[in-house]
Write a structure and sequence with these properties.
The termini are far apart. With 127 residues, the chain is of the alpha+beta class. It is 18% helix and 33% strand. The longest helix is centred in the first third of the chain and has 12 residues. It contains two helices and eight strands. Strands 2-3-4-1-5-8-7-6 form an eight-stranded mixed beta sheet, with helices on one face. A hairpin with an 8-residue loop joins strand 2 and strand 3.
């Protein structure tokens, strides 16, 4: 069974929102790749919360996407393709340390698919 392990929130002030979740819920900072104005990745040791900048207003602030940790991404991709070929997952940009694939459900809610998981951050080198 796939496990939901990742949720992303867009905000105009990632540092402020991350500080809130750290202070109120005791979340630990996992990764901050671009300093104070960039994304902040938090964890409770099981679940990952990504606080993403929305300075360019590409999407409304709030829930942006969530992510599934799966044992076999190929099997999941095949199931999605059978249900809706137009929604076949696409690779995430190179150099992303988390999910390998992204697509959306029938209502348009984005979700990521990862075999390696969301907790053990191993930043990838861009190829």
């Amino acid at each position: 069974m796939a496990q939901i392990r990742h949720l992303a929130i867009k905000t105009e002030n990632p540092a402020k929102l991350a500080a809130f979740y750290k202070e109120v819920f005791g979340l630990t900072e996992l990764h901050r790749p671009r300093g104070a104005d960039g994304p902040v990745y938090l964890t409770d040791g099981y679940f990952n919360l990504a606080i993403l900048p929305n300075a360019d207003q590409q999407a409304r602030s709030g829930l942006y996407h969530f992510g599934f940790h799966v044992e076999n991404a190929d099997e999941v991709v095949e199931k999605i393709r059978k249900l809706n070929p137009a929604k076949a997952p696409k690779p995430r940009p190179k150099g992303r340390p988390y999910a390998e694939l992204r697509t959306s459900d029938p209502d348009g809610n984005f979700f990521d698919i990862s075999e390696h998981g969301f907790q053990d951050v191993k930043p990838l080198k861009a190829k």
